[in-house]
Structures are given as C-alpha cells and as structure tokens.
User: Fold this.
Amino acid sequence: MHNENTPPPTSAATVRGRRKEANMKNQKYTILYSRLSRDDGEDSVSNSIKNQRAMLEEYAERNGLAPFLHIQDDGYSGTNFERPGWTELMGMVDADEVSAILFKTMDRMGRDYLRVGMYRQDFREKGIRLIAIADNYDSFAGEDDFMPFREIMAEWFARDTSRKIKSVVNAKGNSGKPLASQPPYGYVKDPDDKHKWRVDPEAAAVVKRIFSMVIDGMGTWAIAEQLHADMVECPAYYLGSRGIGSHKNRYDKEHPYSWSYTMIGQMLSKLEYLGHICNFKGEKANFKSKKYTRKPQEEWVIFENVHEPIISQETFDTVQRLRATNRRVNNVLGVSNPLTGIVFCADCGRKMYNKRYDKSDTYNCSTHKFGENKFDEMCTPHHIKSSAVREIILDALQRTSGYVREHEAEFIELVREKSALMHGETVKSGKKQIAKNERRIAELDKLIVSIYEDKVKGILPEERFVIMAAAYELEQADLKAQTASLQLGLDAYNADTANAEKFIGLVRRFTRFDELTTVMLNELVDKVVVHEGEWSEGKNPATGRNMGTRRQHVEVFLKYIGDMAIPDTRTPEEIEAEIAAVEKAEKRLTQLRENRRRFVAGEAKKKRKHA
Assistant:
C-alpha cells in the first residue's frame, strides 16, 4: 500500500533511541498509531497513512499529548495482530513506556472484536489512555456503551470484505487467469497483459539446467551446492535485485548464491513449468486465520498449455519418476547407483534392492531380502550384478539405436504392426470396417425416419412399426459399440506410432552409444525386469549346491516402445561365428568345472588317506 506520498515509517532504531532518551527522563510517550490494509477498500484514500498521521498529530498537539511517537503498519490486515508496528507498540506497553494511544478510529487497532476488547481491558488496567478521534471515544471520559457494537461492526466489515474478495478470486481463478501475484522463477509478467506470463530467458536457462542435473543423477543437495559453487544467483536475489515481485524490498544482499535443497525440490515439482496455470493450491481456514494449508493436487484447478513451457512433459515425468525413488548414497563412492528405481523383480513386481560394499555391487529382490518383516509374501533372490544389468541395457540400446538409425521407416512399421496385433485387428481392415459401420448407421437413421413417417400416414401399422424400429435401433447400437471398439484400437495404433517417433527423437539426441551414461539410462530406459536364474546342471545331490552355468533372463523396456524385439541385421556368417564362440566358451567352462571337481575330490581322498 506504499506510495510516494506515504510518510516513511519510524524505524525501530529511531523508536529505541527515543525510548532510551525518554527513560532517562522518566517520561512516557503518547503513541500515534496508524494502520492501512487492502481490507479498507474504497476508504483507503481517507484512511491513508498520510491522512491518519496528520489527524493524529494535530489532535495530540492541540491537546498537549506530548511527547509522542508515530508507529504504523502499512499493508497489514486488522484481523491479524502479528504486525511489526503493533508488536513494537506492545513492547513499549510491557516496558511501561506508554501513557496514551491515539487512533483515527478504533478499527485501526483491529477488526477482531474479541481481541480488541481484550486489549482495551488490558490497557485500562495499566492506566493507558485510549483515544479514537473519529469515534469520539476517550477512555478517560468513561466507557462508551456503544464501543463493543462498533467493534463487532468492524469485524463484520472485515468478514464481509473477505467474502467479497473471495468471490472475486474464485471467479478469476476459475476463468483461467493465474491467482499468483507473481509468476514462478523462470517467467515474468507480459507487459501488455498482466494475466499472461512470458519466459525469462536467463532464469529459464537455470530451470532447465536444474532439471537436466536431476536426469544426470544429481540429488537436490548436490544441485544446490553446484549452483552455489558456480555462483548462480538464487531466485530471491535474482528477482529482488531486479526489482521484481515481492522480493524487491526484502532479499539477502550479502548471500546472492544461497540455494537450498528445499528450494530446488519445490521448483522440480512445479507444473507451471509445463505451461500450465495451477489455481487454488491452498486455502486459509477463515478470514481471521493467516495459516495457509496446501491442498492435494487433485483439488487444484489446472488450465493446461496456457503459456510457453520451459520443461517438456517427457523431461518433467522423468524427473518425477527419479525423485519418487529413494537412492542411498554409498559411503565410499559418495554417489548412488543410477540403476536403482528401474530394476524390478519379474515374479513379485517389486523394485530390487541394491547392495554395494567393497568391490561388490549387486541387486536382489527386496521381497526376498525383507520379506520376513516387511511383506507377507516371499520370493526368490533374483540375484544379479549391477555390471551385468548395465551390459544388458547397453546391448539393448546399441541394437535398437543401430536399427533405428539404419532402418527408421522399418522401425516405425514394426511398431505399427505390433500395435495392430496387440489390438486384434489390422489397421487397414479396422479403418474399412469403421467406414462401413458409419455408412450403415446413417442408413438406419434414414430408415427409422421413413418408417415413422409411414406410421404417421397410416401406411405402416403400429405393431409393425414397433418391431421394425426396435430391430433397427438394436442393429444401430451394435454397430456403434463395434465402431467405438475399433476406434480405440486405431487410437492406440496412432499413439504407438507417435511413441515410435518420440523414441527416434530421443535416439537422435545421443551421438554415441559406446558406454552407458546416467543421462542415457534415465532418458531412454523405462524399466528392467529380472527373472530368477537357472542352473544348467541343477543341484549336486550330495552337497545341494547349484551346478553348471547360471543363465538369467532380463527384459529391458525402453521409453515409448517397451520390450519390442528388434530384427537381427547380422549376416548368417556373423551369427554362426557368435554361436560357435558361445559354444566354445561354454565347453571351456564345463571343462574347468570338471577339473575343479576332480581336484576337490582328489584333495578329499588324500585327507581321508592320511587321517
């Protein structure tokens, strides 16, 4: 509510200095208290701080109420007594430094009649004189029987004003206009329309960087530290130093790079960065309450794609998925395993637990590990090394990306064929059947109209009309149901085609697939499903130990396309050579295991002989 004609408030240092001087002389002050808020509506001009101060000062000088001090609260509601000026005044009251308090009207003290009544009683017991000039009230002249009614009316005014403001806010919020007084960091108000937001290129670059850092595997603590180290201005300083929003009058000028992990977390969850407007995200219990309670997201009113997005939906979804998984930081390595959160057990469906110590880095089924005290069902270990998972993922990405780059059109057709098969109808026949059904539905409409006209003219008997109309309507209903089912299949087909193109776009973003990076993992891989391993030779009857080679099936589901099988583009000679190499390696492992068994058996025989 400040303007250029509003006198500057008396500073706390000035008040303390005058109080110290007054204490040395054993003086008490007359406090000239002024308050103004948006609650005053049309009365804001007559109630301006300037007018209040002039009226109070003139009255004090005319009636010899000196020495006096001005204390004011500009921009504070009367329903809230947590006001800096009022707090300062009550501090002086408690220190017995006040002889009288002057208001223009008693509602300048407040609009909560219970609190105001309590303060009046407290001031009377302490011998402090209260004067409300416009109300013609002076506590030294005796109690005014109408004062309680004035206080009730003041509270009613605040309640009524709050109700009107709430009605206006509801209408504005439901119309799609943003309720936030300032757009979030990354946007600025459009100078031509205050209800529209424009992207702030400098701040938006920081927002994009923060989302990218999450995809790169960094947590909110690490991001905050990195931004501080890179001397990136935090939002409060960035906005305040440029005179934008509520930060222009209060920001820490000494610490421009003071990013916090909570600040980062809040930014990462903002739907506004998708181009949306999110209204009614919280509420207050009533017009007196200052406590803001945040609502669950399903109760928000969201208007999508209102302004230019800073973050894509795919990036936002990836970040939310990564943040939903708790990643333990390894004490030795100082980082978490980027595979955590995407590796799942094929049998129980739960996320697998990562165990890292020394040189070991493995995943095990969390149900099996914690089943006895956390879950009712049990499962098998599904033990697998992290290195093996990474090799399998990299191989899947290399094969898929290689095929996409060499055979893009064939890849899209593969996705289309898979979609058509999944929905039990080829796309071509589905389109033809829909067109045929729509023609027949239109014909049935004409037939129903025709037989109705024949019935009206008396050409068609009533009983015959009822039978024919029922048959036509039944046939029409069946055709509409079939058409809707076919359309669902076509919509899914079109969606899968779009997904194939999205995946191709992702592949193009990476120039090399020589090694698996965290960014590659987070942007291209949806999940990895690990099956239980099987041993080629079963268990040893004597020892119960597994024998032979352990084979384990692992499925890699890529973003948008799932676990789609990619055609093998190798030549027959290359395939035959790889099969031969695998057989040779398996034969060598079998020979090594046999040699080991003979050695162990020989050592055991020697021990028995010397026993």
